Amino acid sequence: VSIALRIAYDGTAFHGFVRQAGVRTVQAELAQALSRIYKQVVEVRGASRTDAGVHARGQLVAFDPPLEIPTEGLLHALRGELPEDLGASAAWEESGPDGGPLNPRFGNDGKHYAYRIRIAPDRNPLTDRYEWHTRQALDLDAVREAAAHLVGEHDFSSFRAADCQSKTTVRVMTGIRAGEAEPRDQAPTEAGRLVGQCRVVVIDVEGQAFLKNMVRVMVGTLVEVGLGKRSASTIPGLIAAADRTKAGDTAPARGLTLVEVKWPRRSG
Amino acid sequence: VSIALRIAYDGTAFHGFVRQAGVRTVQAELAQALSRIYKQVVEVRGASRTDAGVHARGQLVAFDPPLEIPTEGLLHALRGELPEDLGASAAWEESGPDGGPLNPRFGNDGKHYAYRIRIAPDRNPLTDRYEWHTRQALDLDAVREAAAHLVGEHDFSSFRAADCQSKTTVRVMTGIRAGEAEPRDQAPTEAGRLVGQCRVVVIDVEGQAFLKNMVRVMVGTLVEVGLGKRSASTIPGLIAAADRTKAGDTAPARGLTLVEVKWPRRSG
To answer: Can you tell me the ipTM of this complex?
Structure first.
């Protein structure tokens, strides 16, 4: 039986989830910690291949333990072995659908990402790791109108990295919502001196699966709509074009968090 | 005329506010940025000598510009010169009370600090930079009862660092409040699996001036009360003892933020 782990990380100092030679990645750090605990080489499989700099609250990974350690004891051992920017919050035993190894890339009920945009005259050193800072106001109604066109089943070829390797480009977005959140850790208002207003926009994206950079290209395009650089009514044509060069810039990684890989209760 | 700056910083990578040889400090980084802008050596004076690792949203500093740059242009230039974990949100011209150089240590209307404590079974890599993580529940009513004893004018000798240099030890706390805040960036609840509850307690402390480590020693002591290790009724005796060894441990720097140095409107 495999062990599933719910993990969270601050992506700032990681070159993404997937192991790559010569750089610090979530997959390698977690495998190293587990290998120290089990005193054997352990490899982990993740549900989402988050990009360099992208954060996670509810990433899901699985591995095959070379010997039996109760999940409570395993979580306790991981607390001592993981670096400060990577943590595990839950562990449980679970087999794959055929009784074989569990692979969380398959069988999950979709993913929820959240993208935070902070609109303010100045950077905020206390939130910059987790937000895209911009000085220009966004028309939230226009963003919502554009987002509505992206919901549903579409060919998302226009919204993926140029080097995306996926053979299929049709994906289903189950929901895209744009809303305002309370700004965090704002500088105090000056006595008698106007300090610029701050507004935080959060774009929540939920879907079964995503292409490489897809959320960030969608957000970059939605922001262009919000800035009035393109109109919401152009989105259906942009989808139909199936051409990455027609969409907006890829939004910075720092604003994106994998909130949850949804997982059905199968056992336990 | 001096220039006052409202600054914010993530204290994690700073060895505190005050310049020290061989380490990275807020005072030195800011002075270096200003010196590059003015092409002459500029020194800055701060209102609060925050410890290593302590954050600030509304620290106040002042300096004497060697040549005239309008404050809007100065803020713009600072945006380009300051590192990512240090930012300036407001700038204005102001003289000291005698028409001489402005020193924000004097003439401010007090300081507001906030201390965040996260009570949860596991660390959270997305909030650990800004919160003290503990696994044990706190009795918030007991914390409030103890805090009430600290409000007002007292000799705070029991609540300062062993190496605190201040000659006077009487200070006035104008308010200490303990409350709950919405937890940030929590891991998702597992489908059908109990994941431990998370609670965030924020202790807000306001006073005219503070001794070295004073907020952190007060918080460490209040947490011991919340954990049942000492009773709230022992606080008056602890104050009267005027003995640092009788108070609780110094709470970790990471949970503390200088929210605001209050500044009266004098001009502009």
So the answer is: 0.91
